[in-house]
Amino acid sequence: MAGIKVVNLVVTTDLKHRLRLEKIAAIVPHTEYNPEQFPGLTLRIKEPKAVALLFYSGRVVCTGTKSIEEAKKAIFQIIRILKKVNVDITIKPELKLQNLVGSGELGFKINLHYLAINLRNVEYEPEQFPGLVYRIKKPVPACFLLFSNGKIVCTGTKGEDEMKECFGQLIKEMQELEKKRTLKRK
After folding, report:
1. Distance (Å, whole) CA 113 – CA 34
2. Where, residue-wise, is CATH 3.30.310.10 in the chain?
3. 3-class DSSP state of 155
4. Could you report the per-residue pLDDT of 72-130, keeping only the tens digit for each?
5. E strands of the chain, at which residues?
6. Nearest CA to 2 among 172, 167, 185?
7. Between 3.40.50.300, 3.30.310.10, 3.40.50.720, 3.90.1150.10, what CATH number should domain 8-98 receive?
8. What DSSP element (H or E) covers 166?
């Protein structure tokens, strides 16, 4: 059986400084700003590869990195970019991990129709989306996307250990279902 690994995380921080988004968008490359559509400025960073949403208030949402260390580097890269346009950030930003996204494989094919019938907290509409959405509440709330080929995506956890615990819970529940199914056949 394969496992699960972090493929993306979402962190937030507050730079404690108002940002003139129009000015930043006019000067800084790799930005998008359309306030009629969305109140934040999108900034793409090449190294480490990340996308940040900057808001007038100084709040920043950063996504695309695979570790807290990469996220810190991305935030400090943003601060360096802002300093080049005379925005002097004087604080050391505190990062808050909001969400992890994990991806992996169960190592076996899944009968999604069977799971949809036999599990609670499931959404399955194969005409609209090829995966099954399964929400668990313990050990912590998490959401899994399950695909018939055994691939999975996990979101909603706030740490790698939590994500692996939830993955273990998913495996346990699927093994229990398989035992029930085998007993019914006998």
Report:
1. 42
2. 8-98, 106-185
3. strand
4. 999 999 999 999 999 989 899 999 999 999 999 988 888 999 999 998 899 999 999 99
5. 4-14, 31-33, 41-45, 50-54, 59-65, 96-105, 122-123, 132-136, 142-146, 151-157
6. 167
7. 3.30.310.10
8. helix 160-185
Q: Which two tokens stand for residue 92?
A: 């050391």
pTM beyond 0.85 = no
CA distance 172 to 161: 16
Kindly report the number of other CB atoms within 10 A of residue 107's CB atom: 10
| Greatest extent of the chain over all pairs of C-alpha atoms, in Å | 74
Which of helix, strand or coil describes residue 140?
coil
Q: Could you tell me if 82 and 25 are in contact, meaning their C-beta atoms sit under 8 angstroms apart? A: no
Cis, peptide link before residue 48, omega less than 30° from 0: yes
- Phi/psi of residue 88, nearest 5 degrees: -95, 100
- Both tokens of residue 158? 């706030």
CA distance 122 to 145: 10
Residue listed under structure tokens 């590869």 = 49
CATH classification of 106-185 is 3.30.310.10, yes or no?
Answer: yes
Return the bridge partners of 153, or none.
103, 145
